[in-house]
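seq:
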Amino acid sequence: MARPDIPNLNEIIIVVKLGTSTLTDGTPYLSQSRMVNLVHQMVDLLESGAKVLLVSSGAITYGREMLEFPHLPKDIPAKQMLAAVGQPRLMDLWGKLFAIYNQNVAQVLLTRSDLRSRSSYLNARNTLQALLNQDVIPIINENDTVATEEIRVGDNDNLSALVANLVDADLLVLLTDQEGLFLDDPRKNPQAELVPLVDSLDIEPELWEAAGDSFDLGVGGMITKLQSADLARRSGSTVVIAYGAAPDVLKRIVREEQVGTRFTPTSSAVESRKRFILSGGTSGCITVDTGAANALARRGSLLPVGLIEVSGEFERGETLSVCREDGSEFARGLVNYNNVDCIKLCGRQSSDIESILGYFFGDEIIHRNNLVLL
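struct:
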């Protein structure tokens, strides 16, 4: 049931990123009171119609707390060890806090390499979408126990932007220990000016310079939050950097009150995906019949029944040319099945896909959201 203090969010997708400084309230320990307050707000967003994902730092910090703050070298194996101790306990704590409100959650651990491979990217995307469809909140973290160079300053800030891109998020919220982006360090200069809105196509140099001072307590500093905001807005997401301890901060953000620093998207998510599809070459070509061509022209999806011929070698997720029977290319899109599978599916019904292949990635060879008409 939607709450009266939150507008109908109508299935908008919201990614909430919580850094260590927000989770600890500036102490060496996780602040469970802070965490349960944010959990309550996220559940309220879900009940008002939103789809919510949480990108959570804190595994290394919680591991250090569980081991009673041992003196360790500042190398990667030590951090991996702390993450191995802390991550399951952090997830258990999140699970218990969300269970107070009868909310199911799921753990998703990612590294950057998972998002570089197109097949891994699609697998992660499909898993997250399946969780959101069941109103489960995915709790995402860097897989620090196997990451090497990924364990570095502010990685989860940038990871949150990649997740926003992965799920076509409408809103990315970066909660930190500052009220937003300032033009100077507010701790040294009480007159420092808060930047309420960034709506220019490119972020101004003085903002990058101000963020480079890294004056917040989080491990990444403000610069990585600005990098994250820049990446996410170019993928079609609105981004807000705000103070995580502010009362009802998430509710106020979705009500579009003046909270923190808001970055407007430079393009829609669809436009961003279209640029990706058109920016590179194609790995193969599929020829479709007249009926399928007409359906695509009406913004439909490409179903296997409309396939006539498949040429080239390609994997799931690669970009293909879509051609008419006379050989003319009229569209490009990201394919759901590899070339061998597509050959097997030519002219077949979508209901037969699983029985033919033994697995199922969707009814479509190319979904309309991943198709660009030329």
